């Protein structure tokens, strides 16, 4: 990621700024430095524009679990925008439960009140046409996201069972309200189709700036049940694809194995190629983490028409650990299929999967609040993608 100074006008700029912890003054200083290297906050919000902050609020979880964007990062960006005269709100659509509950548990609600930022209404959905879409020409998005003059994404550095990593591009999927997200999984079970839809959502919403909270990341069984991993970095870029690609390279993940990269580049969302990205700020070598726990192979192809034996021996599947399962039933509630592919717990036993129907969207694994569900790769899959 180092080399001779390229022509910055023709390349994407990604800023890396070291930050050792979530001490609010240190986080704010780091964020101010990063935004300054990109040209200042005035480049992304001017005057009294309505700016929506879009954090990652997957579920209601305490900040120290590192499931959501940390309140210190959220508060620092809010302050910068308010100082510049912007009218700021924030919103997201959690995968389970309400934004009010999730924001309260994560500390984001207190952070917002502390600086005078209001919560946007993400319950109102609007269907919009997008003629330039790769795959989703009709999108259902939160009205608050569409009504904003500009969006600033505040993603979290985490792994993801389906898309390998969750970052700037996928963060905008939270602008799809509530159960609508599950509908996209049912319509687009193939990873490449789902990734193209994520790119369409991001292109339609056009976030002006993307900030990734990587001070403490999540590795392993992400995005909700992984292990905290200290990375000590904030990443900033106007190019969401370039930001995600730099995240990948920091953890020694080949960016082209992330399904959003190819459609993102082909559609003009951004670039992931190393020689098309300029790194400013601190040296990438400071944050290099070769043993970061992430699946570095591309997703295994999946189609609902595949014969069962092919699904069984090639396609990774969600598996429940009976010792960790509390029989809460959330896995069944979030399954997008009707009837569900994972039956509710019965007579004190853990839920049971119908793997013949399971579309491998891993929503159950993503939303399990107890880390009881992991993704198991069959032997043949491991042999194909070593």
Describe, in plain words, how this protein is organized in 3D.
By secondary structure, this protein is an alpha/beta fold. The protein folds into two domains: 8-287, Rossmann fold, CATH 3.40.50; 308-384, Alpha-Beta Plaits (2-Layer Sandwich). The chain is 30% helix and 21% strand. It has 14 helices and 15 strands. The chain has helices at 24-37, 71-83, 99-106, 108-115, 143-147, 168-171, 180-187, 191-205, 240-250, 261-267, 308-314, 330-334, 363-367, 379-384; strands at 12-18, 50-55, 87-90, 118-119, 125-129, 138-142, 150-160, 164-166, 209-219, 227-237, 277-281, 317-320, 342-343, 352-353, 373-376. Strands 1, 2, 3, 4, 7, 8, 9, 10 and 11 form a nine-stranded mixed β-sheet that branches. It has a two-stranded antiparallel sheet with strand order 5-6. Strands 12-15 form a two-stranded antiparallel sheet. A hairpin with a 3-residue loop joins strand 7 (150-160) and strand 8. Helix 2 (71-83) runs parallel beside helix 4 (108-115) and helix 8 packs across helix 10. It is globular, with a radius of gyration of 20 Å. The relative contact order is 0.15.
List the defining traits of the structure above:
single chain, 386 residues, Rossmann fold, Alpha-Beta Plaits, nine-stranded mixed sheet, two-stranded antiparallel sheet, 15 strands, 21% strand, disordered N terminus
Short description, anyone?
The protein is of the alpha/beta class.
Topology:
Layout: E1 12-18, H1 24-37, E2 50-55, H2 71-83, E3 87-90, H3 99-106, H4 108-115, E4 118-119, E5 125-129, E6 138-142, H5 143-147, E7 150-160, E8 164-166, H6 168-171, H7 180-187, H8 191-205, E9 209-219, E10 227-237, H9 240-250, H10 261-267, E11 277-281, H11 308-314, E12 317-320, H12 330-334, E13 342-343, E14 352-353, H13 363-367, E15 373-376, H14 379-384
Parallel strand pairs: 1-11, 2-3, 2-7, 3-4, 7-9
Antiparallel strand pairs: 1-10, 5-6, 7-8, 9-10, 12-15, 13-14
């Amino acid at each position: 990621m180092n080399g001779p100074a390229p022509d910055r006008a023709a390349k994407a700029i990604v800023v890396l700024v070291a930050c050792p912890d979530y001490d609010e003054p240190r986080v704010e200083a780091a964020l101010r430095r990063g935004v300054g290297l990109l040209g200042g906050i005035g480049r992304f919000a001017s005057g009294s524009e309505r700016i929506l902050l879009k954090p990652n609020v997957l579920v209601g979880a305490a900040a120290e679990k590192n499931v959501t964007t940390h309140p210190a990062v959220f508060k620092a960006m809010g302050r910068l925008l308010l100082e510049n005269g912007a009218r700021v709100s924030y919103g997201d659509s959690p995968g389970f439960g309400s934004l009010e509950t999730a924001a309260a548990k994560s500390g984001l609600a207190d952070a917002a009140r502390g600086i005078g930022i209001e919560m946007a209404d993400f319950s109102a959905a609007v269907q919009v046409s997008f003629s330039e879409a790769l795959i989703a020409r009709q999108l259902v998005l939160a009205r608050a996201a569409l009504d904003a003059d500009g969006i600033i994404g505040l993603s979290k550095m985490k792994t993801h069972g389906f898309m390998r990593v969750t970052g700037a591009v996928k963060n905008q999927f939270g602008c799809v309200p509530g159960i609508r997200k599950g509908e996209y999984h049912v319509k687009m079970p193939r990873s490449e189709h789902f990734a193209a839809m994520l790119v369409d959502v991001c292109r339609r919403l056009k976030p002006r700036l993307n900030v990734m909270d990587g001070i403490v990341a999540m590795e392993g069984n992400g995005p909700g049940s992984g292990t905290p991993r200290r990375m000590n970095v904030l990443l900033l870029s106007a190019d969401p694809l370039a930001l995600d690609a730099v995240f990948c390279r920091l953890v020694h993940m080949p960016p082209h194995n992330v399904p959003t990269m190819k459609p993102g580049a082909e559609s003009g969302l951004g670039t992931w190629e190393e020689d098309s990205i300029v790194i400013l700020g601190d040296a990438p070598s400071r944050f290099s983490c070769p043993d970061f726990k992430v699946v570095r192979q591309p997703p295994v192809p999946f189609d609902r028409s595949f014969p069962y034996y092919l699904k069984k021996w090639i396609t990774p599947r969600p598996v429940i650990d009976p010792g960790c399962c509390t029989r809460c039933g959330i896995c069944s509630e979030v399954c997008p299929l009707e009837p569900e592919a994972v039956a509710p717990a019965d007579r004190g036993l853990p839920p049971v999967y119908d793997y013949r129907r399971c579309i491998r969207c891993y929503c159950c694994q993503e939303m399990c609040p107890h880390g009881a569900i992991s993704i198991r790769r069959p032997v043949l899959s491991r042999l194909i993608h070593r």
